[in-house]
Amino acid sequence: MKDLGYRIGVDVGGTFTDFSIYNTISGKLIHYKRSSTPDDPSCSIVTGLAEILEKENIQAADIEYLAHGTTVATNALIEKKGDTIGLITTYGFKDLMEIGDQKRPSLYDLLRPKPVSLIHPGARWEVHERILYDGSIRQPLQEQDVLDGIAHFKKMGIRSIAVCTLFSFLNPIHEQKIREIIRREYPEAYVSISSDLVHEFSEYARMSTTVLNAYLGPIMKEYVENFRESIKGAGVSVSPFVTQSNGSIISIDETIDCPIRTAVSGPSAGVIGAARIGKQCGLNSLITFDMGGTSIDVSLIQDGKANVSFERMVEGYPARIPMIDIVTVGAGGGSLACVDEGGVLKVGPRSAGAKPGPACYCRGGEEPTVTDANLILGKLNPKRILGGRMSIDEKRSILAIKKAICQKTDLSIEDAAAGIVTVVNSNMVRAIRMVSVERGYDPRQFTLVAFGGAGPLHACEVAEEIGIRQVLFPPSPGTLCSLGLLMADTQFDLSRSRLTIVNEQNLSIINNLLADLALEGQQLLNTQKIPELRRRFQFGFDCRYEHQNYELTIKIDKGKLNESDLDDLKKAFGNAHEHAYGYQDKERPVQIVNYRVSAVGLSDKPEVDHIQERSASVPKENEVRQVRFEKQCKFIETPVYLRDDLPSDCVLQGPSIIEQMDSTCVIPPGWTALSDQYGNILVERKEKNGDA
Description:
There is one protein chain. The chain is an alpha+beta fold. Among the domains are: 6-77 and 223-262, ATPase, nucleotide binding domain (Nucleotidyltransferase, domain 5), CATH 3.30.420.40; 81-221, Dna Topoisomerase Vi A Subunit, Chain: A, domain 2 (3-Layer(aba) Sandwich); 490-601, 2-Layer Sandwich (Dna Ligase, domain 1). The chain is 30% helix and 28% strand. The protein is built from 16 helices and 37 strands. Strands 13, 14, 15, 20, 25, 26, 33, 36 and 37 form a 9-stranded mixed β-sheet that branches. The longest helix has 31 residues, at 203-233. The termini are far apart.
């Protein structure tokens, strides 16, 4: 047995790459940040690992676990940089991606542009075959149609093929045969079949998910294989994992087969980490506030668990895979500010990214960013960040804001900087409303967990605008996503479609389907060699009132139900329906549409529950700075503390600023901060007259 074992989580963001290193023997936890390398994200990982190993005197052979959160799939979708794809489908259905399901996100906006087509023009190919609604074969597959389609795709230079035939989720035999033919006749092509991805009805959502997967397939395959080889070259012998959008981890091979599962890979890990920190503090109702250099990711945690959606829109197309319900807005520290043609100040969604970055980074950036604005307002250290490892230049920030904002308006440098922060804060408030108010939740009942490099800079001011009274700063907010990677479990989400009325007559059907899915989950956990004691199963149904066309997911505690459990299921659905839509109908039959089972393999998690007790006295400030806070017209003398100097049970009154290697925490006037025994900082706003 090795004397030392290290578990490493790596989160690659648009601006910085974050590392969390856990020593399984000593319990020591190390955090590290370095600039990202957008051209090849694996470069920043390998370089960062080398720096950490040398600095901490760690041998690469002692790394026993490596998990990676990536934005490669996300960026490829946003920037439309996926590969050229073709579609093979049942005769008569080639236009389904254009027709959609008739849902209109903006019903009265007749000029709203349709999402950009991901399928190469002229690359939709129909084949004669037909599976019926009960899984039986009405018309066998005409293999010559497939061969003709492959020849057509070869001529067009198509590199990736999506296959989605009618009712293949009930009987995949035709899709599997098509894949077999493609691999024989066109082995260099990437192929994705719907029956491997989605075992549920809804033809459009299945096809869309398959098309998205094929679109990402070649680019993700190239990236993760390069990442795997780069890690090997650095001396790391373990096979790395990648985070799924549901907050769990999958292998490199699974990532290649199903890259759409990584659509919100990086942000999901932060939600998992925030849930753990919240549980540590006894807080189960949380809104996560992850602000990095490029964007902000917001999610809602209820009863200690993240909200998971089983279908969400990805760049205008539905993706029917389990994802943590995360809203992303282009509002980060690197978001660019400008004055539009109408004289209006705008911030984002364009970002300076890692290169050239904010103007103050001295890497060639000339446009003003949110980071530049915070620097001018005194919220950021005017000389160095990242614990002193990175120098910055305030003069460049002043020049950038003067040129882009002040010369086009009558604003002073300071007012322009304050305006940038106000605009970006408003953008973030809208994101919080989307995961709370628009989902039927009152944000004032939640604690805002602020993380990411820029999250603690803005959290209190954003919270005050939306009415949240409590904000939580984790011990290392700038690296919480990489820490979350060390807390991620293995998880397989299984589902089946079958319309079933919830009544006693169908009890055996319900239990048999749940048992079949649980058995499949056991087999998948066997492939990962998960010990029996570490296996957990979660059960649920997508339910609706009979004849409705929308479903709500209801979770249950066990995989075998009795008659009283059916009554509880109907009551739970009625309550959920009333919460979502304002009413319930107790006389109307409840119908199960999809059966869901999650097979979970619990991982070894870092023990971060205790820190050494220290004196509760307030330490001497590191410096005093003039800081301007939102909604104030003047600078205020503000003490600046180092986070490492704060003892447990220490109380700080706002205004105060707390600096650390990975982030800066801003406590405005009217807020009080308390450091706890775990190293967290809980900040509360004093009640004002008229507060609800």
